[in-house]
Design brief:
By secondary structure, this protein is α/β, with parallel strands linked by helices. It has two domains: about 120 residues, OB fold (Dihydrolipoamide Acetyltransferase, E2P), CATH 2.40.50; about 180 residues, 3-Layer(aba) Sandwich (Rossmann fold). It is built from eight helices and 17 strands. An eight-stranded mixed beta sheet has the order 1-16-17-15-14-11-12-13, sandwiched between helices. Strands 4-3-2-5-6-7-8 form a seven-stranded mixed beta sheet, covered by helices on one side. The longest helix has 16 residues. The N and C termini lie far apart (about 45 Å). The relative contact order is 0.13.
Length: about 350
Amino acid sequence: MAEPLCPYFPSCSGCSSQNISYELQLQNKRRLVETMLKTELKVFSAEPYNYRNRIEFIFKNGKIGLRQKRNPSLIIKVDRCAICDKKINSLLREANDFFEGRADKAFRFMVIRNSKDSSSISIVLDPDSSTLQNAVDLVKNFSSHTSADNLVVTYSKDDAYSEDYFTVKGNDELEAEYLEKRFIYPVQGFFQNNQEVAGMMQEYCRNILKGYSTDGKQLLDLFCGVGTFGIINHGLFDSVIFVENYAKSIEYVKKNAKLNGMARFEAFAMDAKHLSRLDLADDLFVITDPPRSGMDAQTISQLNKLNPSLILYISCNPHQLKKDIPKFKNHKVKSAALFDMFPQTNHMEIVVELIRS
């Protein structure tokens, strides 16, 4: 057992394992995945607290907090989050000091992010609220009271992210660095929440690829986000193909490719199940990082037809991963690794190396 560092545990819905020693947390995660995949795992981890660089808070009754575990319709007012980094907690204090008792029903969520050299706060407002203009004016006033580099107003009733937003302060982008490559990403978009462990995962994948003969061959970065895997590894291949369903991310792939001096690539905003529309090389390597729901059956069927030399399957859902792996009829598991991206929770990232059988 362990002594939780968070005064809101276990009432808060955010963490589930602070009462368990970190060593045992890792053992439990390893045992779960090894049982599912029937293979040994390498395990990578870093700091168990103060690692998170993004968090989503909820406004309710003039307070800022996180959902209660027993009753998710209620929140717990939070003054400090033990798994968040120092800058996020500093920005949370500023927001609490300014908005407590002043934020009305127009206020829905607050997303705080911290990156390499800058930070952002996105305040989400209900676009249909009768007090919307007053809320916007209040956020504009807050801009002079916060040390956040960027402040954004987002319009949405039920989601913390939306393309309907405007910038109050700074801009709408952040920057991160992995393996000496720079990546710009939107404050409204997805990016890994644990910078240190995400860097370990990038290095691990790169080392696997360096173990193969990749000269003159092609890399397919599937569900590519803003292009981290393809850009980091582009020097090992003749060319890289990026595929992502979200068109905004493809814009950032192109921006990041240019930022890192990458020339030989193509980027497609399309559903992965339409891979047959692309002119892909016979000697193909694949990195795929699908959402928690896993890969569409049609996408897996297309990959089976392409029969790549290697597939690196990155998953945040071991239960879905267990279902998907057997569907790759031409491949077998060579290795697997667990990256504890989310200490104090049941969540994790897994990388499976699949080679042609």
